[in-house]
Write a structure and sequence with these properties.
The complex is a heterodimer of chains A (498) and B (228). Chain A is built from 23 helices and no strands. With 498 residues, chain A is mostly helical. Chain A folds into two domains: 244 residues, MetI-like (MetI-like fold, Orthogonal Bundle); 215 residues, MetI-like fold (Orthogonal Bundle). Chain A is globular and about 80 Å long. Chain A starts with 12 loop residues before the first helix and ends in a 13-residue tail after the last helix. The C terminus of chain A is likely disordered. Chain B is built from nine helices and eight strands. In chain B, helix 4 crosses helix 5. The longest helix of chain B is centred in the middle third of the chain and has 14 residues. Chains A and B meet through helix 7, helix 8 and helix 9 of A and helix 3 of B.
Chain lengths: 498, 228
């Protein structure tokens, strides 16, 4: 007779993953006392009630002609994605061959769209050029990576069947591209949805998209108007497959050119001065080492900021993990009835469609400035997104034993099959979560993003660039760590996870 | 006339030898049937023959190697992809070349694929795909035909017609197949593989169906097991 093994003892893959996740949760709990989680708002419930009322009874009449904001939001998202794909596709072909290119792509996508916008704002002002560059540049980096991953999975058989001597281009166009076209298109569609969110967010730095009106409505407590704007956004996302139909896209692209105008006069001398002079510390350009030391010493204290950034990212990861575990059954066919599933699916779609900055902004108004609203926003947005994908995966599974109670179905039949995938999705999101963490600094949470935002505010572009470089480096390091942590056996071929 | 000659060669993939020390000579003007269980090394042998004969041989692979999203016409056209420049191939994708279209159309009509030229291959049945793969190999218009089970998913009546069509165009062929009767009636020579060795290599008129059964050990052992 042998004794039964103790808690989490054993070397089955499920237990290994469970131990690994638990270690992550424990690490987060240990570090939690370091985070500032105070609720400082005087009457959060009263405020929440007013917001809920605004969302439930939107004040449509308060909107002053939202059509221009809607058209601009769509045009920016569409052209940003289009230009990003146009740049990213040729890069994807070179991606496996060039280490420099891979590093460059990692760098451009490590910086959030909004920070790119802040950078371009200095040169191109509040114009469409700023908006498009802010989207197209990081997206080119993302497309290059994801397209390259998709192309790598091209089935080889058709290409091997070709006669010898077929030129490279013909081989690619006939026997490779058609085999992955569907995946490339579906990822591009997903990225367009992300671009819609990013386009709304650009309103937070002053570009007149929907986010601009949303922010001022929320800030000034006009919740009825904010509710109406949010409804418009959700409706746009929900009907995306309809108005964003393949056949309508060329028409939308052409119309977008009109809505994006007026185009700014680009001052070449100013642009050059910004790139060659403003972005660099004066002492570096003058070749003054002592001045450079002083410049570094004048930096805000970066260690706490980096610590906060990493801590918030860890908290965001763990929060997303817990929420995803709790939420996915809501939208899965294995649980509940038709009504509960419909409601669950709607909740998840709303939570994942709401831009995370928007979510954090609202929570911040409710709870006061601390890490708490940022944490909740990260966990809600990413947890819902992962839960949605896991529920879709679960719907493809058939339980082996019928008639189990719900808890048995969850713990014995479904979760063991879904968990490796769930954890892998979470690790893919690590990069995104960290990028969002920095972004939340714009709302006053003391992460790196906070200092980047204030450097731009005080026109200290050299300092802003330096901080952006640090952020990007941090992102690349965290992505590498997450890749090691990720369960290796599961191929995550759902491109919508990134 | 000798076409190619293996002399104690080790054939296989990157690091795994499938056919060790293979010696075999193929001659022009012979129709050769290649028999053996799956896993016996037929595909490896055909791959090696293809590599040696490359510009002479038309190739019909086991997995068809078709592109599901492209139409029947484009899949067949791919047989001659190397004879046009990249630009012409690109244009043909947007607007089929008139002469190529007619050539492919008459070829497809012969194989019972008429009216399907515009249909994407993903919407075809298994037998239809098989015939598209054969059409592509015929469209290559090479001297020799190499086929890895090109008759696997068509009915017996069609298999005979397709085989006759292939052999009418090619005086020399090496075809892997499972239909023993066809191997004896329509080929000059039968090569039988078993466990990576050439077990049988003889003129088909000297062979009987019983000789061919010896290539399939499972069949004979399971028969022995049931009798015992």
């Amino acid at each position: 007779m042998s004794t039964a093994p103790g808690w989490l003892r054993g070397d089955s893959p499920g237990l290994t993953l469970a131990r690994r996740s638990l270690a992550l949760v424990i690490l987060c709990l240990l570090l939690l006392p370091l985070a500032d989680l105070e609720v400082t708002a005087a009457a959060p419930w009263a405020e929440l009630w007013r917001m809920a009322r605004g969302l439930a009874w939107p004040d449509w009449l308060a909107l002053e002609n939202p059509l221009h904001a809607i058209a601009l939001t769509v045009s920016v998202a569409l052209w940003g994605t289009f230009l990003g794909a146009l740049l990213g596709f040729p890069l994807a072909l070179l991606f496996p061959r060039s280490r420099t290119l891979r590093a460059l792509c990692a760098f451009v996508r490590a910086i959030h769209e909004l920070f790119w916008a802040l950078l371009f704002l200095q040169v191109f002002g509040l114009s469409a050029v700023t908006a498009l560059a802010a989207l197209a540049i990081p997206y080119a980096g993302i497309f290059a990576k994801v397209y390259a991953e998709i192309l790598e999975l091209t089935p080889r058989a058709p290409s091997a069947a070709l006669p010898a001597g077929v030129d490279r281009l013909s081989r690619f166009i006939y026997a490779e591209l058609p085999l992955v076209w569907e995946r490339l298109a579906s990822y591009t569609r997903y990225r367009f949805e992300c671009a819609m969110r990013a386009s709304v967010l650009l309103g937070f730095v002053g570009l007149p998209t929907l986010g601009f009106y949303l922010e001022s409505a929320f800030r000034e407590g006009r919740f009825g108007e904010a509710g109406a704007l949010l409804w418009i956004f959700y409706l746009m996302i929900a009907t995306l497959h309809w108005w964003g139909h393949r056949r309508l896209l060329p028409l939308l692209l052409v119309a977008g050119l009109y809505w994006l105008g007026p185009w700014p006069q680009v001052d070449g001398a100013l642009l050059w001065r910004f790139v060659s002079h403003d972005l660099w510390p004066a002492s570096l350009l003058a070749g003054d080492p002592a001045g450079l030391v002083a410049w570094v010493r004048d930096m805000p204290d970066l260690l706490p900021a980096i610590g906060n950034t990493l801590l918030l990212a860890l908290m965001g990861m763990v929060g997303s993990l817990v929420l995803a575990l709790l939420l996915w059954p809501l939208a899965s066919r294995h649980f509940g009835n038709r009504a509960s599933r419909g409601l669950g699916r709607l909740t998840l779609v709303v939570a994942r469609s709401t831009p995370e900055l928007m979510l954090a902004f609202v929570l911040l108004l409710l709870l006061g400035p601390s890490m708490l609203p940022a944490w909740l926003a990260l966990a809600l947005h990413n947890g819902a997104l992962i839960a949605f994908l896991v529920a879709r995966h679960a719907d493809g599974l058939t339980p082996g034993m019928s008639g189990l109670p719900a808890s048995g179905r969850y713990a014995y039949e479904l979760l063991p099959r879904l968990y490796p995938n769930l954890l892998a999705l979470l690790c893919y999101r690590a990069e995104v979560i960290l990028r969002e963490t920095a972004l939340l600094g714009m709302l006053g949470v003391a992460t790196l993003g906070f200092y980047i935002d204030s450097s731009f505010e005080y026109l200290m572009f050299d300092q802003a660039l330096f901080l952006l470089l640090i952020t990007a480096g941090l992102n690349i390091a965290v992505d590498a760590a997450a890749r090691r942590f990720r369960p290796r056996e599961v191929p995550v071929d759902d491109p919508c996870s990134r | 006339m000798t076409l190619l000659h293996f002399d104690g060669d080790d054939l296989g993939h990157a690091d795994r030898v499938v056919l060790p020390g293979l010696s075999l000579t193929l001659a022009r003007g012979q129709q050769v049937a290649l028999l053996g269980q799956s896993g016996a090394g037929k595909s490896t042998l055909l791959g090696a023959i293809r590599a040696r004969l490359d510009p002479l041989a038309a190739w019909c692979p086991q997995s068809h190697g078709l592109v599901p999203l492209l139409s029947v016409y484009h899949n067949v056209y791919m047989g001659r992809l190397e004879r046009q420049g990249a630009l012409a191939n690109l244009l043909n994708l947007l607007r089929p070349n008139r002469e190529a279209w007619q050539a492919v159309e008459s070829l497809c009509a012969e194989l019972g694929l008429d009216g399907l030229l515009r249909r994407p291959v993903e919407r075809l049945s298994g037998g239809q795909r098989q015939r598209v793969a054969i059409a592509r190999a015929l469209y290559q218009q090479r001297e020799i035909f190499l086929g890895d089970e090109p008759l696997a998913s068509v009915d017996p009546h069609q298999a005979l017609r397709l085989l006759q069509r292939i052999q009418r165009q090619h005086a020399t062929s090496v075809i892997a197949l499972h239909q023993h009767r066809l191997a004896l009636s329509h080929f000059d020579r039968v090569i039988g593989l078993r466990d990576g060795q050439v077990q049988l290599d003889a003129a088909s008129r000297e062979l009987t169906l019983a000789d061919l059964d010896a290539l399939y050990p499972d069949a004979s052992t399971s028969a022995a097991a049931t009798s015992a």
